[in-house]
Design goal:
Helices cover 21% and strands 37% of the residues. By secondary structure, it is an alpha+beta fold. Helix 3 runs antiparallel to helix 4.
Length: 316
């Protein structure tokens, strides 16, 4: 009997959208990723109802506090799953502050059991809770608790040294120590992680009309490669009345990169139309390597039953 795989995700099934485009340009004036406060530019003449809407957003923001189920499937051979808690803790002068926490890590539906896997997971656990600052473009710009992380790692390293010996362990510890030695190096590590790269990605948003915009984007689909560049188009669907959702879809063709053949990606974002907060992401990357077709699938799904979002006054 085939084992039933464990899944952390609620409402996992989804149908991707399709976008079309013929000419391409670089990203400019992007708007929202995980932010809960960003709004469209005000027109010259603003109805009273819209003015009131702006005032409410400016004076009583919804501070996102959500948990997302993350799932990454590599060629149907390896699946990584975990929960990521995302809590917005403040806003000041255009910068949002978030605390991130990762729990319940599984590989192929099971807890890690191999030596290097267990070592890596125990080491990575020192990153959390992870505190970051995010600009209005939706990008992580700094890690704000680097010293706390470094101290946690120093304590954890001493504990691990009682259980593990040998050069592989020593070399691995040196690598981690270097990665947590500064905020800049921690930030670099985050930008090399496909989860943070896609979650905190620049997005175009239009609130009134459906449109398709030619666009070049980069995604960190591989840890061993630099970001993969794509040229394609991004489509924005305005508010869907049935479920009050904004759908944003990016479809692109991979630019040539060493070691890989042709490739294409499709990344679909689903946002709540009330505050533009993230509800779901479905990503797909099809490519060829050594004349073999390969696929990477990515999902991030809001776990509604675990939501802790509240409305509160914010300080500027």
């Amino acid at each position: 009997m085939k084992d039933k795989r464990f899944s952390l995700l609620e409402n996992e099934n989804s149908t991707a959208l399709k976008a079309q485009g013929s000419s391409y340009e670089k990203e400019d004036k992007p708007h929202f990723s995980l932010l809960t406060k960003e709004t469209e530019k005000a027109p010259v003449q603003i109805p009273f109802s819209r003015k009131l809407h702006y005032w409410l957003i400016e004076n009583k923001a919804t501070f996102l506090h959500r948990t997302y189920g993350l799932k990454i499937n590599y060629n149907n051979k390896k699946t990584i799953q975990y929960l990521l808690e995302v809590k917005c803790t403040g806003y000041k002068k255009g910068i949002f502050y978030y605390t991130l926490d990762r729990t319940r890590f599984f590989k192929d539906g099971k807890q890690l059991d191999r030596f290097m896997e267990q070592l890596a997971e125990q080491s990575v656990s020192c990153l959390y809770p992870l505190k970051v600052s995010v600009n209005k473009l939706g990008e992580i710009v700094s890690v704000t608790n680097q010293e706390e992380i470094e101290k946690r790692w120093q304590i954890k390293q001493k504990e691990l040294a009682k259980r593990y010996k040998g050069n592989p362990f020593i070399n691995y510890c040196q690598k981690i120590s270097n990665s947590v030695s500064s905020s800049a190096k921690l930030l670099e590590s985050l930008t090399n992680d496909v989860v943070y790269d896609i979650l905190f990605s620049k997005l175009y948003i239009n609130y009134s009309n459906k449109f398709t915009k030619p666009l070049e984007k980069e995604f960190k689909w591989f840890s061993g490669f630099k970001k993969v560049q794509f040229y394609g188009s991004q489509t924005v669907n305005p508010i869907i009345k049935e479920n009050k959702r904004i759908l944003i879809n990016y479809n692109g063709v991979m630019r040539p990169i060493g070691g890989l053949g042709k490739g294409e990606t499709l990344v679909k974002y689903e946002l709540d139309s009330k505050d533009n907060s993230l509800l779901r992401i479905d990503g797909l990357f099809n490519y060829t390597q050594n004349n073999v077709n390969e696929t990477i699938e990515f999902k991030a799904i809001w776990q509604k039953s675990m939501d802790k979002t509240i409305a509160q006054q914010i300080a500027y």
